[in-house]
Every structure is written in structure tokens, then in C-alpha cells.
Amino acid sequence: MTPLGAEIAALIRQNGPIGIDRYMALCLGHPVHGYYRTRDPLGVRGDFTTAPEISQMFGELIGAWAGYVHGRMGRPDPLVLVELGPGRGTLMADALRALRGAAPGVRVAPHLVETSPVLQAVQERTLADAGAVWHADVETLPGGPAIVLANEFFDCLPVRQFERRPTGWHERQVGLGPEGHLVFGLAPEAAPGLEAEGPDGALLSVPGTGLTLIRALARRLSATGGVLLAIDYGHARPGFGDTLQALSGHRFADPLAAPGEADLTHHVDFAALARAARAEGAAVHGPVEQRDFLLALGLQARAERLKTRATEAQAAAIDAALERLTEAGRAGMGSLFKVLAVSGPDLGPLPGFAGA
Known about the structure:
The chain is an alpha/beta fold. Helix content is 38%, strand content 23%. 43% of the residues are buried.
């Protein structure tokens, strides 16, 4: 058992089983043993790869999109450009380069919300000349209009899970098995207040932390203007099923096997996020599939332009990246990943979304 696993087991022995949300929060954010507190998880030597690391084209298109949206916002000076969970800073670096090319002379104030000291150190090197400011949470971000980017961010926010039984919805928990190992179980009493219909055995995920965050951002955007662009893997329609998963060495793993040593994520419920944002008076755009969004922004044309100055090997790499970012099918990034925008109610249609 990992050091964090032993600590969680001791916590359970003392206080009883814990919810999936508490388990995720400990595994990812424990101040000593948390997954994101202790490592750079990205790349070949890490556990997963994100779209900005696959190709510069991804961040460049996001930057050009931000430049256009900045104009629609009335060109506030400076443009407050925020990224939630910025990884290695690659997306922000590529977006800034493209944004400044699309909107020459614009002053950009980059702000990054990051809790990992390891990743913040990497970001500081990547963005050494960008004048970026770091924040531990969104509460300390500057006021006023802003463009907020969130790529693969909502999927790692803690989620609660409930299983339907004849007596109601029972919360899924992490407890201890007969030999002291971590196991999944159900709370003995049904959770009050859950009225969703579902068959016996159905598993319902409630992204409480994500809903709280998007409500706060939607209130801000409705009041002061701006837009949130969220890109993540998940589903556009409500549904049942267990999407909690662990990744280690680019492979799926047992979520309970090595607490603190594997990434924990879940599929984002975009329908729930959209409902929460609308309830706060914000406009919602999408969700649309990543493939459609990127192609609408000109991904194919950008790839062809890059290939005009590329070697044969570089051109092959560009084609491979294009294919990976737009691959259709249930497991392809182009279909599995969705794009959702939340904006002030007066911003109007946005590029990349149907009808824009």
C-alpha cells in the first residue's frame, strides 16, 4: 500500500468510509502525497498526454479564437487571459503567440490557476517572458472581463457517485475490505434529496465541485463580461454509468490500487455544467465535439501551412497530430472530447460553435 493509501486506510478505520469526492481530493491534492503535488504527469515519461502537448496547432487555434473573442468583448485593455490547470504552460505559450499575431498591439495579462508546485515550476520556465501571475484558486483573479481557458480541468475535480437501490440512491464510498485493502461500497442509508429516475443498479455521478466552480464563473461572466472555454472528455447528454478511472503509464489502472500514484479522472457531464451556467444568467454555447470545433477554426488549413516549411518527417508528424486531434469514434479524441463555452448573455455567437 502506498503512503497515502495507508493514511486513507487509517482515516477510514477512525471515522468510517469516505465518499468518492473525498477520496479523489486526497489522491490528487494531498499536501504531501497528492498526485499533482509531487510530479509532472505529462508526456512519454508521465501518465497521459494532453492536446497542447500533441501539437502547437491546438494552442495556436485557441489563441486566435481568443483574439477574435477579445474584439467581440470590446477589446478591454489589458485582456485578462486565465488558464485553469495549465499543465506545463504549453497551451498558454502557444495561445499567446497566436493571439498577438491575430491582434497586434493587444496587451495581455496572463493569469494561471495552479495548485501543483511541480507544474508551476515548469510553467514559470515555459512562460518566463510572459509576465504571468499565478493563483491558488479563482477567488484571487482580477476583476473585470476575462477569457478563461480550461483544457482537461473539469475531469479531475472531485465527483460524488450514487447507486440506485430499491430504497433510493445510496452514495458510493471507499471503505476497507476484510484484509484491510481499500474497497468500494455503498452507504447504508439512502441519500436525501436525490429524485432522479433510474433503474436498479444505475450509477449516477454528481460533479459537485465542478458545478460550484462553473456557477461562480457564470455569475462573474454574466456581471462583468467575458467567456469560459472548457475542453474535456465527457458526454453531452445526461446518463448513467461509472466513468471514474485511473491512469498510470498511459494505461488504465485500478482507482484504488495506488492512491497518490495514479491520475484519477471522470467523464465530464457537460449537460449538468450547461444547466448550472444558464441558471446563473450566462449564455451557453455547445457543447460540440472537439473535431468539429478545431476544424471550424481552421485546423486543416493551419496544418497545411505548417507543412509548407516542414521536412518530410515533420510533415508526417503534423499529419499524425491532425489525425489524433480529430479522430472520430467512441475512443477518438475528436469525438470523445467536447467543447463548451459559457459567456455573458450579450456576447453573441462564438466561432467554432454551430450557428456562429
